[in-house]
Amino acid sequence: MSAHTLIPAERFRGADLSRVADRARRTLGDDVTILHTRTVREDGLPMVEVLATSGAALDRVRDRLTAAPLPMPLRRADGRPFVVALVGPTGAGKTTTAAKLAVRRGTFGGARCGLLTLDTYRVGGVEQLATYAELADVPFEIVYDAKEVDAAMKRLQATCDVVIVDTPGRSPAQSELTARWRAMLDTIAPDEVHLVMPASVRADLALDIARAYAPSRDGGMGGGSPHVGASHLLMTKLDEVPRETGVADVALAVGLPTRWIADGQAVPGDLANGAPRLLRSVGLAADAEPDWLPA
Fold this sequence. Notes:
Order of helices and strands: EHEEHEHEHEHEHEHEHEEH
Largest sheet: 6 strands, parallel
CATH topology of the largest domain: Rossmann fold
Shape: elongated
CATH class of the largest domain: Alpha Beta
CATH superfamily of the largest domain: P-loop containing nucleotide triphosphate hydrolases
Strand content: 15-25%
Distance between the termini: 40 Å
């Protein structure tokens, strides 16, 4: 998948760059953006080829990638914290990302974060998150069953404005365990569900993963309860993708807005705003915005 496959664009050729760019401007408008320029040969003669897109097309791309602003205040009128859940395949980096979101100052302004994990299946998963929580003095709860959700949320509500929920990385084939933790997540009723996916994932596999974590009427189990689905995309391990080639195309193919990206393992670092980074990966300027909410 090439870097601009999913960005609507037109190609223009000519003997001179200025004339080709002028023709692109006349065709696409004064706000035309040149995405790529190269030299090609046509009938044995060197030609300049320009890949360009209109400002309106870029606005649509930005709108698809950009998440809506977080609500202010984050707490609901009834005092319930704002809940962000992380879902996704095994090895995507959910637990590390959950720790980053909870312990990095300014991610949610001056709001205090808590951590809740449903990942009681993976060896060492609870201990890893508990260690981060203890070092950063972040409230931490473990839930083993849907009946425990209300009590855990009430304890977190006493001191937290935001709750980050970590979930197991489970194959869709493991239907029984998947149904169990998804039922717990439904009980929590998160405000946002971020599909955590490594940036190196193939585009076709990314679409399969997105379908597996989409909202469902029957939980995908045939006759079960509806399940909440992913509302956002959170790409991780961008540091493992050379030049971040194709990352924006994967995000556009999945079709979910991106609030954050992760580009390393450091906690609480290696976390950034999503849409501006993805736009820059294809050479596009992002609208100016602060890195984090004001404290």
